[in-house]
Specification:
By secondary structure, this protein is α/β, with parallel strands linked by helices. It has 8 helices and 9 strands. The chain has a domain of 126 residues: Rossmann fold, CATH 3.40.50. A 7-stranded mixed beta sheet has the order 1-2-3-5-4-6-7, with helices on both faces. α7 links the parallel β6 and β7.
Length: 234
Protein backbone atom coordinates (compact mmCIF):
# COMPACT_ATOMS: atom_id res chain seq x y z
CA UNK A 1 0.00 0.00 0.00
CA UNK A 2 1.28 3.40 -0.92
CA UNK A 3 2.08 5.53 2.14
CA UNK A 4 0.20 8.79 2.44
CA UNK A 5 0.23 11.79 4.73
CA UNK A 6 0.09 11.19 8.44
CA UNK A 7 3.31 9.28 9.14
CA UNK A 8 5.74 10.90 11.58
CA UNK A 9 8.74 9.14 10.02
CA UNK A 10 11.06 11.43 7.97
CA UNK A 11 11.55 10.24 4.39
CA UNK A 12 14.82 9.37 2.73
CA UNK A 13 15.92 12.96 2.06
CA UNK A 14 15.09 14.02 5.66
CA UNK A 15 11.87 15.89 4.92
CA UNK A 16 9.38 15.68 7.77
CA UNK A 17 5.86 14.37 7.21
CA UNK A 18 4.57 17.94 7.51
CA UNK A 19 6.93 19.11 4.75
CA UNK A 20 5.83 16.25 2.51
CA UNK A 21 2.19 17.16 3.20
CA UNK A 22 2.78 20.80 2.30
CA UNK A 23 4.51 19.79 -0.92
CA UNK A 24 1.53 17.57 -1.77
CA UNK A 25 -0.81 20.52 -1.19
CA UNK A 26 1.22 22.80 -3.47
CA UNK A 27 1.28 20.19 -6.21
CA UNK A 28 -2.46 19.47 -6.16
CA UNK A 29 -3.84 22.84 -4.99
CA UNK A 30 -5.81 20.70 -2.56
CA UNK A 31 -7.71 21.98 0.43
CA UNK A 32 -7.75 18.43 1.81
CA UNK A 33 -5.75 16.71 4.49
CA UNK A 34 -5.55 13.03 3.49
CA UNK A 35 -5.06 9.96 5.69
CA UNK A 36 -3.28 6.71 5.04
CA UNK A 37 -5.37 3.90 3.56
CA UNK A 38 -6.80 1.20 5.82
CA UNK A 39 -8.58 -2.11 5.33
CA UNK A 40 -12.35 -2.21 5.90
CA UNK A 41 -14.02 -5.64 5.68
CA UNK A 42 -17.80 -5.16 5.42
CA UNK A 43 -20.90 -7.25 4.86
CA UNK A 44 -20.60 -6.19 1.21
CA UNK A 45 -17.01 -7.40 0.90
CA UNK A 46 -13.55 -5.96 1.45
CA UNK A 47 -12.89 -2.27 0.85
CA UNK A 48 -10.06 0.17 1.46
CA UNK A 49 -10.92 3.42 3.24
CA UNK A 50 -9.26 6.81 3.09
CA UNK A 51 -10.27 9.76 5.27
CA UNK A 52 -10.24 13.38 4.19
CA UNK A 53 -10.37 16.56 6.23
CA UNK A 54 -11.50 19.77 4.56
CA UNK A 55 -9.13 22.48 5.78
CA UNK A 56 -11.68 25.18 4.87
CA UNK A 57 -14.55 23.78 6.96
CA UNK A 58 -13.02 21.18 9.29
CA UNK A 59 -15.48 18.59 7.96
CA UNK A 60 -14.18 15.03 7.73
CA UNK A 61 -15.25 12.81 4.83
CA UNK A 62 -14.59 9.21 3.80
CA UNK A 63 -13.72 7.41 0.61
CA UNK A 64 -14.48 3.69 0.30
CA UNK A 65 -12.51 2.05 -2.50
CA UNK A 66 -13.11 -1.30 -4.18
CA UNK A 67 -10.58 -2.79 -6.57
CA UNK A 68 -7.76 -1.12 -8.49
CA UNK A 69 -8.30 2.47 -9.59
CA UNK A 70 -6.50 4.57 -12.17
CA UNK A 71 -6.34 4.00 -15.89
CA UNK A 72 -8.76 5.21 -18.53
CA UNK A 73 -11.75 2.99 -17.77
CA UNK A 74 -14.75 4.74 -16.17
CA UNK A 75 -15.29 3.89 -12.51
CA UNK A 76 -18.61 3.26 -10.75
CA UNK A 77 -19.07 6.03 -8.16
CA UNK A 78 -21.63 6.95 -5.54
CA UNK A 79 -21.35 10.37 -3.87
CA UNK A 80 -23.48 9.92 -0.75
CA UNK A 81 -24.33 12.68 1.73
CA UNK A 82 -24.58 11.72 5.38
CA UNK A 83 -28.00 10.88 6.82
CA UNK A 84 -27.72 9.64 10.41
CA UNK A 85 -31.40 8.86 10.71
CA UNK A 86 -31.55 6.88 7.47
CA UNK A 87 -28.05 5.40 7.20
CA UNK A 88 -27.65 4.36 10.85
CA UNK A 89 -31.07 4.36 12.53
CA UNK A 90 -33.07 2.87 9.67
CA UNK A 91 -35.51 5.75 9.23
CA UNK A 92 -38.18 5.15 6.61
CA UNK A 93 -38.92 8.87 6.14
CA UNK A 94 -36.30 9.03 3.40
CA UNK A 95 -34.54 6.69 0.99
CA UNK A 96 -30.99 7.44 2.19
CA UNK A 97 -30.26 4.18 4.00
CA UNK A 98 -31.63 2.14 1.11
CA UNK A 99 -29.53 4.18 -1.33
CA UNK A 100 -26.37 3.56 0.68
CA UNK A 101 -27.05 -0.17 0.88
CA UNK A 102 -27.85 -0.44 -2.84
CA UNK A 103 -24.78 1.56 -3.86
CA UNK A 104 -22.37 -0.52 -1.78
CA UNK A 105 -23.90 -3.72 -3.13
CA UNK A 106 -23.55 -2.55 -6.73
CA UNK A 107 -19.95 -1.42 -6.24
CA UNK A 108 -19.08 -4.74 -4.57
CA UNK A 109 -20.71 -6.69 -7.41
CA UNK A 110 -18.82 -4.62 -10.00
CA UNK A 111 -15.54 -5.40 -8.22
CA UNK A 112 -14.28 -1.84 -8.79
CA UNK A 113 -15.66 1.47 -7.61
CA UNK A 114 -15.79 4.28 -5.08
CA UNK A 115 -18.28 5.45 -2.50
CA UNK A 116 -17.68 8.93 -1.11
CA UNK A 117 -19.40 9.58 2.23
CA UNK A 118 -19.77 13.33 2.64
CA UNK A 119 -20.62 14.92 5.97
CA UNK A 120 -23.51 17.04 4.66
CA UNK A 121 -26.30 15.99 7.00
CA UNK A 122 -29.81 17.15 6.13
CA UNK A 123 -28.89 18.39 2.63
CA UNK A 124 -26.33 20.61 4.34
CA UNK A 125 -28.36 22.10 7.21
CA UNK A 126 -27.02 19.75 9.91
CA UNK A 127 -28.66 17.24 12.23
CA UNK A 128 -30.25 19.72 14.66
CA UNK A 129 -31.94 21.69 11.90
CA UNK A 130 -32.94 18.51 10.08
CA UNK A 131 -34.92 17.38 13.14
CA UNK A 132 -36.51 20.84 13.32
CA UNK A 133 -37.45 20.41 9.65
CA UNK A 134 -38.92 16.96 10.42
CA UNK A 135 -41.15 18.56 13.05
CA UNK A 136 -42.37 21.06 10.49
CA UNK A 137 -43.04 18.23 8.04
CA UNK A 138 -45.07 16.48 10.74
CA UNK A 139 -47.17 19.65 10.75
CA UNK A 140 -47.84 19.49 7.02
CA UNK A 141 -44.92 21.14 5.21
CA UNK A 142 -42.88 19.24 2.64
CA UNK A 143 -39.09 18.88 2.89
CA UNK A 144 -38.39 21.95 0.72
CA UNK A 145 -40.96 24.14 2.49
CA UNK A 146 -39.55 23.09 5.88
CA UNK A 147 -36.00 24.11 4.93
CA UNK A 148 -37.19 27.42 3.58
CA UNK A 149 -39.33 28.06 6.67
CA UNK A 150 -36.13 27.70 8.75
CA UNK A 151 -34.35 30.20 6.50
CA UNK A 152 -32.33 27.73 4.42
CA UNK A 153 -32.25 27.00 0.69
CA UNK A 154 -33.84 23.74 -0.43
CA UNK A 155 -30.40 22.14 -0.85
CA UNK A 156 -27.18 23.52 0.65
CA UNK A 157 -24.89 20.68 -0.43
CA UNK A 158 -21.61 21.53 -2.15
CA UNK A 159 -19.76 18.90 -4.18
CA UNK A 160 -16.45 20.77 -4.61
CA UNK A 161 -14.84 18.56 -1.97
CA UNK A 162 -16.12 15.46 -3.80
CA UNK A 163 -14.35 16.68 -6.93
CA UNK A 164 -11.06 16.94 -5.05
CA UNK A 165 -11.52 13.56 -3.40
CA UNK A 166 -12.14 11.92 -6.78
CA UNK A 167 -9.10 13.67 -8.24
CA UNK A 168 -7.01 12.27 -5.40
CA UNK A 169 -8.40 8.80 -6.17
CA UNK A 170 -7.52 9.23 -9.87
CA UNK A 171 -11.14 8.94 -10.95
CA UNK A 172 -11.97 11.40 -13.72
CA UNK A 173 -14.43 9.34 -15.78
CA UNK A 174 -17.48 8.29 -13.79
CA UNK A 175 -20.39 5.94 -14.03
CA UNK A 176 -22.34 7.89 -11.45
CA UNK A 177 -24.96 6.26 -9.23
CA UNK A 178 -27.51 9.06 -8.94
CA UNK A 179 -30.72 10.57 -10.21
CA UNK A 180 -29.87 14.06 -8.95
CA UNK A 181 -29.19 16.45 -11.87
CA UNK A 182 -27.73 19.12 -9.56
CA UNK A 183 -25.11 16.69 -8.30
CA UNK A 184 -24.18 15.78 -11.87
CA UNK A 185 -23.93 19.45 -12.86
CA UNK A 186 -21.73 20.34 -9.89
CA UNK A 187 -19.36 17.42 -10.46
CA UNK A 188 -19.00 18.35 -14.14
CA UNK A 189 -18.07 21.90 -13.11
CA UNK A 190 -15.19 20.42 -11.13
CA UNK A 191 -13.71 18.73 -14.18
CA UNK A 192 -15.26 15.28 -13.90
CA UNK A 193 -16.65 13.48 -16.92
CA UNK A 194 -19.87 11.55 -16.30
CA UNK A 195 -19.93 8.96 -19.06
CA UNK A 196 -23.03 7.22 -17.69
CA UNK A 197 -25.73 7.91 -15.14
CA UNK A 198 -26.57 4.68 -13.34
CA UNK A 199 -30.04 4.79 -11.72
CA UNK A 200 -29.98 3.92 -8.05
CA UNK A 201 -33.18 1.95 -7.54
CA UNK A 202 -34.94 1.73 -4.17
CA UNK A 203 -38.51 0.87 -3.24
CA UNK A 204 -40.91 3.76 -2.83
CA UNK A 205 -43.18 3.25 0.20
CA UNK A 206 -46.03 5.11 1.92
CA UNK A 207 -43.50 6.46 4.46
CA UNK A 208 -40.94 7.82 2.00
CA UNK A 209 -43.43 8.65 -0.77
CA UNK A 210 -44.05 12.31 0.19
CA UNK A 211 -40.30 12.95 0.42
CA UNK A 212 -39.57 11.31 -2.94
CA UNK A 213 -42.43 13.10 -4.68
CA UNK A 214 -41.06 16.43 -3.42
CA UNK A 215 -37.57 15.55 -4.66
CA UNK A 216 -39.05 14.71 -8.05
CA UNK A 217 -41.42 17.68 -8.36
CA UNK A 218 -39.41 20.46 -6.69
CA UNK A 219 -35.76 19.40 -6.89
CA UNK A 220 -35.83 17.80 -10.34
CA UNK A 221 -34.76 14.32 -9.29
CA UNK A 222 -35.34 11.74 -11.98
CA UNK A 223 -37.84 9.46 -10.24
CA UNK A 224 -40.80 7.38 -11.22
CA UNK A 225 -44.38 7.65 -10.09
CA UNK A 226 -46.20 6.65 -6.94
CA UNK A 227 -45.96 4.53 -3.76
CA UNK A 228 -46.67 0.86 -4.31
CA UNK A 229 -45.46 0.92 -7.92
CA UNK A 230 -42.02 -0.17 -9.13
CA UNK A 231 -38.61 0.48 -7.52
CA UNK A 232 -37.64 4.12 -7.67
CA UNK A 233 -34.40 5.91 -8.49
CA UNK A 234 -33.22 8.77 -6.28
Amino acid sequence: MKARQGSTTPNADNRTAKEVELRHDRNTASRLRISDDARLPTRYGKFQVRAYEDRATGAQHLGMIKGVLGGDDPVLVRVHSECLTGDVLGSQRCDCGAQLDAALRQIAEAGRGILLYLRQEGRGIGLFNKIRAYALQDGGLDTVQANEHLGFPADLRDYAVAGQMLADLQASKLRLLTNNPNKMSQLRKHGLKIVERVPLLVHLTPDNGPYLRTKRDKLGHMLRSEPGSTPQGS
